[in-house]
Design goal:
Blueprint (H helix, E strand, L loop, with lengths): L1 H85 L7 H8 L10 E7 L4 E4 L14 H4 L10 E2 L3 E2 L6 E10 L5 E10 H11 L5 E7 L3 E6 L2 H4 L8 H8 L2 E7 L6 E8 L5 E8 H4 L1 H69 L3 E6 L4 E4 L2 H6 L11 H21 L4 E9 L2 E13 L5 E10 L1 H13 L11 H18 L2 E9 L2 H8 L1 H18 L5 E6 L2 E9 L2 H14 L15 E7 L6 H17 L5 E3 L7
Parallel strand pairs: 20-21
Antiparallel strand pairs: 1-2, 1-6, 3-5, 4-5, 5-6, 7-8, 7-11, 9-10, 10-11, 12-13, 12-16, 14-15, 15-16, 17-19, 17-20, 18-19
Helix pairs in contact: 1-2, 1-8, 13-14
The structure holds guanosine-5'-triphosphate.
Guanosine-5'-triphosphate (GTP) binds next to strand 17, helix 13 and helix 14.
Amino acid sequence: MTTSLASLQRSSYANFRLRLLLGFSFLVLLLLALMGWKIHSDYQNDRNTALWQTKSFSQAMGAHVSSQIAVVDSALLHATEAIAKLGEEKTPSAASIRGILAPSNGAPDDNFWMAFIDAQGMGVTSSTNLPIQGISYADRPYFVAHLGPEERGLFVDAPEVGRISKRPLFFLSRRVMTPGGKLIGIVVASIDASVFARVFRNALFQPSLSITLIHTDGKIIAREPRFKESFAAVITETEFYRHVKISPNGSYEHQSLIDGQQRIYSFQTLDRLPLALSVGIASEAWTNGIEEGLTAAAAVFAVILAVMVFSGRFALHSFRRLEESEAGQKSLNQDLRSLQADLTRGEKRLRMIADSLPALVSYIDAEERYVFHNSYYRHVFGADLPAMVGRTMREMFGDAMYLSIKTEVDAALGGKRVSFERTMSVHGIERHLKFQYTPDFDAAGKVVGFYTMVTDISDMKLIQARLMEMTRIDALTGLPNRNQLHDRLAEALTRARRCGLQVGCLYLDIDNFKSINDTLGHAAGDQVLCQFGARLQRSVREADLVARLAGDEFVIVLEGIHEPDEAMRAAEKIVDAMGVPFDIDGPPRIVTTSVGIAVSDDGDDPDALLRKADAALYITKRAGKNGFELHVPGAVT
Ligand SMILES: Nc1nc2c(ncn2[C@@H]2O[C@H](COP(=O)(O)OP(=O)(O)OP(=O)(O)O)[C@@H](O)[C@H]2O)c(=O)[nH]1
C-alpha cells in the first residue's frame, strides 16, 4: 500500500515535470521563432534600406559623373567644331588650335585639359603648357579609335597614369574632320580621376561606404576610399564586373578585393557611356542594428530563460512539497481513521465489558454530572430510570442518598481513591452496596472527574455471615463450638458481673466413649454424640448454652446463678438424664457422663473458668466417672 502510494507520487511528480518541460520547451521554441522572425524581418528591412540607400546614392553619383563627362564632352565638341572650321581652308596652325583649346577669356580648368593630336598621331598643342608637340600618340586607344571610316563620336578611354603629367587620368576624345571627310586629327580631353575621387570622398557620409567608378573595359577610374591604390586596377575578375556585363544596373553582396570588406552594392552603367558606378555599404554598418537587436534579444531570451528555469525549479519544488504535504496529510488521515476505528472498537469493547459487569459502572465529571454509565444501572434501577448522562448525582438519586455519600464524592474529586460500603434501599429492599471511586487526572495533574464502581455485596454479606456462623457451630451436633462458647462465656461473665450473679460452667465428658467407637463403629459414635448433645439441651434452660468443645467433651454455661448448688443440681439432672439408653444402630446403649462444675468468681475470664471446670471433671473421672464434682478453690487436682 505504502509502496504503491509512493510510486503514484513519483509518477505524478514525473508527469508534472514532463508537462512543465514540454510547456517550457514550447515556450522557448515559440520565443525563438518570434525572435527569429523579428531578426529576419529586421534584417530584410535593414537590407532593403541599405539597398535603397546604395541605389539612390549610386544614381546620384552616376548623375554627377555623367554631368561632369557632359561638361568635358561639350568642351570637346566645341573644340572639334572650331578646329574643323579652321581646317576648311588650310591646315590649322598650332597657335590657332591652342587658342581654341585654351581660350584667353576662360581660365584653364585644372580638372581636365585638352590636347590636339594630328592625323598622324603627333601631339600638336594642348590647353596647358604640357610639351606634347612632336610626341607620338599614334598608339593610344583614344587616337586609334578614330581612325576607322565611321564617326565614333565621343570615345571614352580606359584610365592610366599620364605619360607626361604622371597624374591619374582617363581620356575622352573626339575626332576632327574636314567637311570633305578628311581626318584632321583628334581632340582629347584628359580628366584627372582624382577630381571624381575627391567628390566621392566628400560624399562618403559614413566610413563603411565605398564609391567606385569603372570603365566597362575592366579598370577602376576612381574609388573611395583607397583611391590611389585602386586607380586603374583591373577588375575583370570581380562580382561588380560580372554584374555590369550582364545587367545595366542591379545589386549584389560581395567582399571587396580592395579593402576586404563585405558590402552590399548597387551599381548602374552611365547612360551611353562605357562607365559604371557602384556604391557599396559595409554589411557591418547596416547589420549593426541587427546585431544590437540580436544582442538585446539574446539578453532578453537569457533573462526569460533564467526566469523560466527559476520558476520551473520553484514550481517543481513547490509541487514536490505540496505532494509530500498531501501524502503526509493522507497518511495522517489514514492514521487518524485507523485511530478512530481503534477508538471505536476500544469504546465498543469497553462498553461491552462495562455492560457485562454485574456492577454499576460510571464516569462522573468534576461537576458531578454523569458522562458515562453502563447498562447495569437499568438492570438495578429499572427501565424507568431517566436518562442519566448530563445529570448530576444529586438530581439522579435525591438529596438523602447524595448527602450520605457526599464526603466520599468530595474526597474522590480531591484526588483520593475512595472505597466504602453503604446499606441503601433499592425498590424497598435493603441492599448492601460497596462503592469504589477512582479519581481521573488530566495531563496537568488536575482532577477532571472520577470513575465509580458500585457492587451489590448483599449476597456476599449474607454468605459471609453464614460462613461466620459456620465457624461458630459444631458441624456434627449443630451446637455452638469452642469459638462461640468462648465469646458467649465472656459475655455471660460480663453480664453476671454487672448483675452481681455468677456463671456456672459444667465441663462434661462421655465415659468410655472410645469403646463405643471401637465396638459399634465411628458412625454409631457420631450418633451418640448427637443424641448426647440433644439430651443436654433438653436438660437445661433455654437461656443456658450447650456447646461441644471437641471429641466427646461438652460444656454447659449456666447464666444468672446465685450459688454453686444451682449448678450442681443441673449436673445431677444431666447425669440422671443419661439413665435412658441411647437409640443408636444396633442394640440400645447406656451412656454415662462425668461432669466437672465450676462457678465463676469476679476475676474469672472464660479460660480460667473452663480450666477450673476441667479440673473438677478430672476429679470426677478419677472418682469413677458417671457423676459430678464441684471445683473447690485450692483443691489439689
Ligand atoms: N465417633 C466419634 N468419635 C470421636 C469424635 N471425636 C473424638 N472421638 C473419639 O472419642 C474418644 C474419646 O476418648 P477419651 O475421652 O479420650 O476416652 P474415653 O474412652 O472416653 O475414656 P474416659 O474419658 O476416661 O471415659 C476417642 O477415641 C476419639 O477418637 C467424633 O466426632 N466422633
